[in-house]
Amino acid sequence: MEDKLFNVAYRILRNHCDAEDVVHDAFIKAAENLTQLKDTDKLSYWLCTITRNKALEKYNKKKREVLMDCGIYDNVQYNYLSSFHPDFILPEKICINNDFEKYLKEKISNILDPCSRDILFAYYFDYMSYKEIAQKFNMKEGTIKSRISRSKAKIKLLLQNVIV
User: Fold this and answer.
1) pLDDT above 90 for 147
2) Contacts of 142 (CB under 8 A, 6+ apart)
3) Which of 4-18, 66-80, 93-107 has the lowest mean pLDDT?
4) Is the model's pLDDT at 93 over the cut of 80?
5) Are residue 80 and residue 142 in the same domain, yes or no?
């Protein structure tokens, strides 16, 4: 479980030490708020969510610190910062990405049946492996892979119809 949480944090922060710190902080927060967990079957998802939120907090805080040190938000500054860290994203873009993620989840929920939707969300938003998803839904890994593939095809078809 700790490796999975580390991977969630590392994907956001791209820094080994920061990812370890975030996982540690996430475990502390989880321990402090354990009474809020209503369904123990969702412990893994709950911990991933806490870790993801903590990683995003740290990421945003680091960006604010860098931007404050530099004093400006303009494109020249953005280009300067992104030359040191290619994954650098302005805070405004993170807000847009979060809003887009909510919008995307809502639209996907309208397209897919609940089981396929939950499998797709577990894979893409909860960073679960095929094996973990198969165990969670009591299905074979091959079934999970084909459900994800079919779900992606449905979404792609819908997007083609919307764009064209």
Assistant:
1) yes
2) none
3) 66-80
4) no
5) no
- What does the pLDDT read at residue 124? 79
Residue numbers of the domain that contains 141: 90-164
CA-wise closest residue to 53 among 67, 68, 33: 33
Domain boundary among 40, 73, 89: 89
Alpha-carbon span 156 to 29, nearest angstrom: 38
Q: Total structural domains in the chain?
A: 2
Model confidence pLDDT, tens digit, residues 94-141? 555 566 677 777 888 888 999 999 998 888 777 788 888 999 999 999
Measure CA 13 to chain center: 12
- Domain final residue, candidates 89, 119, 151: 89
Total-model pTM: 0.45
Q: Are 33 and 53 in contact (CB under 8 A)?
A: no
Same domain for 34 and 49, yes or no, is yes
Count Cα atoms within 13 angstroms, Cβ side, for 39: 5
Write b or e for each residue in 21-46: b if 16 or more Cβ atoms lie within 10 A of its Cβ, otherwise e. Answer: bbbebbbeebeeeeeeeeeeeeebbb
Burial tier of 142 (Cβ tally within 10 Å: 0-12, 13-18, 19+):
exposed
